[in-house]
Amino acid sequence: MGQKVNPIGFRLSVRRNWRARWYARKKEFAPQLKEDIDIRTFLEKRLRTASVPHVFIERASNRIRVTIYTARPGMVIGRRGQDLERMKADLNKKIGKDIILEVQEIKKPDLVARLVAENVALQLERRISFRRAMKRAVQTTMAMGAEGIRIQVSGRLGGSDIARTEQQRNGRVPLHTLRENIDYGFAEAQTVYGKIGIKCWLCLKAEDMQF
User: Fold this and answer.
1) What is the number of structural domains in the chain?
2) Is 11 contained in some domain?
3) Looking at 105, 140, 163, which one is the last position of a domain?
4) Do 83 and 132 fall within a single domain?
5) For 168-204, how does the pLDDT look when each residue is reduced to its tens digit (9 = 90+)?
6) Strands 181-191 and 20-21
7) In a 10 Å sphere around its CB, with 0-12 CB exposed, 13-18 middle and 19+ buried, how is residue 60 labelled?
8) CA distance linking residue 96 with residue 118, whole number of Å
9) Each residue of 77-121: pLDDT tens digit?
10) Got a GO cellular component term for this one (predicted)?
11) 117 and 194 fall within a common domain
12) Phi and psi torsions of 14, nearest 5°
């Protein structure tokens, strides 16, 4: 009956790994989880235009190692690493712990679902037709070697009074097969008519898994 499950959470420990690696006792768990959420929220706001789909967090004693996966490492690092150092200082001040920031480049951004969804959102904000934006994303991703893609946009599409949902798909996207390498991403476009949500599912080959 249409019960939706996040494809990444559905495949945890089978095909996917957790996005944080640490262990805590019962009393320490909630504060450390709150720290993880604060770190991710801070980085998402700061690096909104830097194509960052994924942040990985590791802990060892009182140190936190944060790996930022990005398609534009130059925007994150800045000239001579100044932006990265400034961001590290702000994050240390906010969290109150020693944080090590690392940057990892994504070689194929067209094969990351979150980045594909963000690209469509960016085009919708520039008032490009949603059908054209979806079609272009589907063609580019399939040309890069994906086995299948499905994109869904919801909201006041084209400024219509009644919100609706439209989708395009190509290739195979078997969401019920746990062993398949399915990537899922979500983004929002802030348009004049309101928010438009974009969901993207990709079926990738095993070697195309980038994190």
Assistant:
1) 2
2) no
3) 105
4) no
5) 999 999 999 888 899 999 999 999 989 999 999 999 9
6) unpaired
7) exposed
8) 31
9) 888 888 888 888 988 888 888 888 989 989 888 999 999 999 999
10) cytosolic small ribosomal subunit
11) yes
12) -105, -55
